[in-house]
Amino acid sequence: VSAALLIGAVVAIASVVLVAVPFLREPVAADDRLLHPDAAQRRRLARAEERDRALDALKELEFDHRTGKVSDDDYRAQIGPLRQRAAAALREADG
Amino acid sequence: MPDLGRAALATSFLLLVYASVAGTFAAWHGRRRLAESAQNALIAAFGSTTVAVVVLLSALARHDFSFTYVAQHTSRELPLGYTLTAFWGGQEGSLLLWLFVLCGYSVAAVLTARRAGREVLVWVVPVLGLVGTFFALLLVFVASPFATQVAPADGAGLNPSLQNPYMAIHPPMLYLGYVGLTVPFAFAMGALLARRTDERWIVATRRWTLAAWAFLGVGQLLGAHWAYVEIGWGGYYAWDPVENAALMPWLAATAYLHSVMIQEKRGMLKVWNVLLVVLAFCLSLFGTFLTRSGIIQSIHSFTQSSIGPWFLGFICFVTAGSLALVLLRLPLLRSKTRLESLVSREATFLYNNLLLVALALTILWGVVYPILSEAVTGEPSTVSKPYYNFFLHSFGLPLLLLMGIGPLVAWRRASLRALGRTFLWPTAAAVLAGVALLAAGAGSSRVGVIAYTFSVFVLASIVLEFARGTSARKALGSVGWGGAFTSLVARNRRRYGGYVVHASVVLLAIGIAGSSAYQTVREARLHPGGAMTVAGNRLVFRGFEARTVANHREIRANVDVYRDGNYLGRYRPGKNQYFAEDQVSNEVSIRHDLLTGGDLFLIADQVNANGSIDLKALQKPLVNLIWLAGLVFVGGSLIALWPDAREERRLAERYEGVAVRA
Q1: What is the separation of C-alpha B456 from the centre of its chain, rounded to a whole number of angstroms?
Q2: What average pLDDT score do residues B187-194 get?
Q3: pTM score
């Protein structure tokens, strides 16, 4: 038997075993369903993303103000709505 | 051994088909074990493809000319390094490298990008499997690197222009870039198939996209340097379709890296971002198609090419399929937020995106037009340099300016008063630079002066950003200026790494403008003892020397260079005559001036039988800034890529609540 043939056989067998591992490990699965996030989990994720976005917007505004990109007037005009949005997003994410 | 190579590739093909079919079935019907099995098939395909790679490398190292590929691309006298790099010197080897890199990326991305969510990952596996199946199919049925023949006494050798150290690094870098763009594409498609259009696929592929983009950028600069030192025409970029092939996906990926920030920060541009990912991937496929199908030479060589029609079919399939999917998911991709102002950071990103995509598409048209024209009229045609230069100036210069404007503008909206304050110093610096350049006589090139003025504006805005940011951090309590600076960069690596990349683009622009708009070219026929002058350098030709080395004969002209009466050294342009390949290559000689950043570039255009030389000399001001830009680009990319523990914690907390059983 040539070395090439032997190596080829090993590669093929190892590949088949690797592919079959999930079925070899659990020949009969108690639950074979792929569990996806339910509607509540999806809403929680959306709220978490919105919370992070709102907090990030607040931080950006603070930083832009400190570095002179946002004037005092603009800062005062924007900070209120952004804080309200962040507070609402935090409440929703926590609730 | 060729049997082992063929068997390994056939195994890869079957595994990838399984990953595609079983993966789709598992995702569609929600079968957990089958999904895991499909994922394992991807891992196994990486293993079997690795075996195929080892077989080909081993055949190359052993000069086994019974492998047709080895005989066609190497010879006995070819140095070992180039013999091994001939792996990607031909079509079949390049395709094998594509598949190998793709399998490697697939395994790494699927195993590490769990943050995308299980429901997205199960769809990512068949998408990656499908792309892999296409390349494995080509390698098994159409263009096998393991075809055999009766071994000839010697091989045909490697194209002389590929016998350069850059051959070891430039093609792999490009492939890491091209193939890497498959990862964001697969995750974007996975997210659409799973109906999950939240940010998770973006977060999961952030680093992969950045890495692929960085590889593609570095690969292009290495290619430009290779052309500069090896091809011997005195330039580094010729708007050649093969060069454009890498530039187009890089531009699309650059647009995506900017616009994705708007989605992350404002939840906007979801459709645009998915389209950019599709565009970047399709352009990377198109780039491979361009370089490998023979279509650049002529439409006829394309129709005779074994892989060309396959590639075209796959590109059409991917484009149509992904666009149909985007259309199908449009209702899920609608954004709730709108652009608040046309004068905001988001808006500058949007303008930047439009210009980048416009530039990519005009280059694409320049590449495609001759092909379509020949197909319709039967007559070959070309799109020449002025076409590309026109659009580079039209879109590139505003892009350069936007790189300076963007960082100075606040998110959401900016008032005129604030803009006046932030723009003051960069504008003043740019105006001063422009006036100084005109006074110094740089007005001979209008584009050059504009490029330099804009470059100063961008550099000033970057310096100002770092200075103001550091000052703000110091005011927040960081210890000392050094601590404040470190904290600034560490807290937002993507932004400040991005600014460093912007600085590298400025260096690139300065280098390109200097070396093209202000270069001096002189040509003369010189007999031994004869002299010529270029840009203040006196060149004296002293005669030829010749010697024979392993696989070629070298002829070198001895040229002594003087400036202001001072001897600067002997430079030796010449030619190499390669025996096995029966080809002659130009070997240029370059004098780098590290103080000015310029080069004196010598080309032995013609070696005459009477002992004279037709010498071409180019003085290329600031050209070394282009290569310096490459180093700065790598630095900026690494800063942006470096893991951020704070960000990781934030993301872990965000996604903790939605983790479900794998």
Answers
A1: 26
A2: 95
A3: 0.92
Nearest Cα residue to B573 out of B550, B536, B533, B545? B545
Residue B100's pLDDT is: 97
| Angle (CA) B203 B109 B142, round 5° | 130
Residues 6+ apart with CB under 8 A from B647: none
Region A68-90 average pLDDT: 90
The pLDDT value recorded for residue B661 is 41
Residue with tokens 């565009």: B279
- Please state, as a whole number, how many other Cβ atoms lie within 10 Å of the Cβ of residue B323: 14
Beta bridge partners of B482: none
For range B160-173, the mean pLDDT: 85
- Per the CB < 8 A criterion, the answer to whether B172 and B105 are in contact is no
Least confident of B373-387, B590-604, B614-628: B373-387
**pLDDT band for position B235 (cuts 50, 70, 90):** confident
Say whether B472 and A53 touch across the interface (CB within 8 A). no
ipTM exceeds 0.90, yes or no = no
**Nearest Cα residue to B35 out of B133, B111, B126, B113:** B126
Helices B91-112/B182-193 angle, 10° precision: 50
Q: How many CB atoms lie within 10 A of CB B408?
A: 28
Distance from C-alpha of B411 to C-alpha of B64, rounded to nearest angstrom: 62
Classify B611 as helix, strand or coil: coil
pLDDT number for residue B617: 95
d(CA B210, CA B650): 20
Distance from the Cα of A78 to chain B's closest Cα (Å) equals 9
φ/ψ bin of B477: left (φ > 0), alpha (ψ from -120 to 50), beta (otherwise): left
DSSP secondary structure, B42-66, as one string? HHHHHHHHHHHHHHHHHHHHTT-TT
State how far residue A88 is from chain B, nearest Cα, in angstroms. 16
CB contact under 8 A, B31 and A34: yes
Closest CB from A34, A53, A66 relative to B122: A34
- Whether residue B101 is predicted with pLDDT greater than 60 in this model: the reply is yes
Residue B643's pLDDT is what? 87
- Residue B228 near residue B179, CB atoms below 8 Å: no
- How far apart are alpha carbons B135 and B142 in whole angstroms? 10
Is residue B567 predicted with pLDDT exceeding 70?
A: yes
How far is residue B551's CA from residue B549's CA, in Å, rounded to a whole number? 6
Cα–Cα distance between B250 and B214 in angstroms, integer?
9
The sign of the dihedral angle between the CA atoms of B177, B183, B189, B191 is: negative
Reduced to 3 states (helix: H, G, I; strand: E, B; else coil), residue B194 is coil
With an 8 Å Cβ cutoff, is B132 touching chain A? Answer: no
- Please answer whether residues B16 and B43 qualify as being in contact, where contact means their C-beta atoms are separated by less than 8 angstroms: no
φ/ψ of residue B181, rounded to 5: -70, -10
CA distance B409 to B422: 8
